[in-house]
Amino acid sequence: MRWMTISALLACLCGVTPAMAQDDAEGCKDHPLFTRMPGMYLASCSASQFDMRAFPVGAPDNDGMVKGVQVEGPVQFLSYAMKEGVTPASGLQLMRNFENAAKKAGGTIEGQWPGWCKAKYDDEHMPEMGNGCMSYGLTMKFVKGGKETWAFFMASQDEGTYALTVTQREAMKQEVSVTEMADQLTRDGFITLYVTFDTGKATLTTDSAQTLDAAAAALKAAADLKIEVGGHTDNVGTPEANLKLSDERAKAVMAALIERGVPAARLTAKGYGQTTPVADNRTEDGRAKNRRVELVKK
Q1: What is the mean pLDDT of residues 157-179?
Q2: Which residue, 148, 169, 180, 283, is most buried by CB atoms nearer than 10 A?
Q3: Comparing C-alpha atoms, which of 136, 274, 148 is closest to residue 205?
Q4: Distance CA 178, CA 187 (A)
């Protein structure tokens, strides 16, 4: 599949008259996948090296809520506004431009909701995009080289403006070496693993393999230690469900370590749910850090 920048189909369907140009907000630039609609400028932006966003997919339920697919990885948010003198494009016009461009680039449409407030999305896990009321929303997915890039477009109530959230799914990188991990486990008594699971399940994703390989090697290097594998969650959901999920995930990591040659007699597993956060659960970045597995020296 040819991977192309989404630009050609974001055609100038809106009339543009001579106008005083507005500059992009300082430090803001377009995402590599997307060029902007003509006559627009970047009013604001934000970025995170690793976070979670819940991308709306499918049809709304009886309460009008659209379910979200949780995607963890680097996040970029972009908000576009019209330059002075530009004839505004309608919400439908904006949405169709992005829809057609995504398909042309080999992407898939995971959900679209034409109209104003026709459905609701999880605004807690999709901050900055709005108040949870869908406004010509569009969720797109692109796959290349085993990596998934998700994008959520939505028009604004302010005519002719729109916003984008883009996340590439990837595991949080384990940034210490095997030797450093073994030394830290011996010295500090624990190491933290940021492995990923299927949403709401205890099934480890393939992105976790490298981290688990390094953890198993570290445990083999510290062969005299017995270890508790502790599972931890953020505070989204009920405490009871989170406790159960964290226990299942701890057991899944323990099984993965045993598969990698760590003796089962050295390991136990326990779930702690949301009871021991290490970061602020009021922020997305904090919740991402709280979703973790710890190897603790017994």
Answers
A1: 75
A2: 169
A3: 148
A4: 14
130 DSSP 8-state letter: -
Distance CA 268, CA 230 (A): 9
Domain ranges of the chain: 40-168, 178-297
Q: What is the pLDDT of residues 34-70, one digit of tens each?
A: 888 888 999 999 999 888 899 999 888 888 999 888 8
Question: Per residue in 15-46, is it b (16+ CB within 10 Å) or e — as a string?
Answer: eeeeeeeeebeeebebbebbbbbebbbbbebe
In words, the CATH class of domain 178-297 is alpha beta
> Across the strands, what pairs with 149?
142, 168
Query: In this structure, what are the phi and psi dihedrals at residue 56, rounded to the nearest 5 degrees?
Result: -65, 140
> What are the residue ranges of helices labelled H in 190-238?
209-221
Sign of the torsion formed by the C-alpha atoms of 137, 146, 48 and 218: positive
For 112, residues 6+ apart whose C-beta sits below 8 A from its C-beta are: 95, 99, 137, 138, 139
The residue whose two tokens read 């969650």 is: 233
**Separation of alpha carbons 162 and 173, rounded Å:** 32
Number of helices (H), then strands (E), belonging to the chain: the values are 5, 10
Instruction: State the Cα–Cα distance between residues 50 and 70, nearest whole angstrom.
Output: 13
Residue 258 is encoded by which pair of tokens? 């045993």
Does residue 186 sit in helix, strand or coil?
Answer: helix
Mean pLDDT over 172-188 rounds to 74
For residue 38, the model assigns a pLDDT of 87
**What pTM, to 2 d.p., does this model score?**
0.55
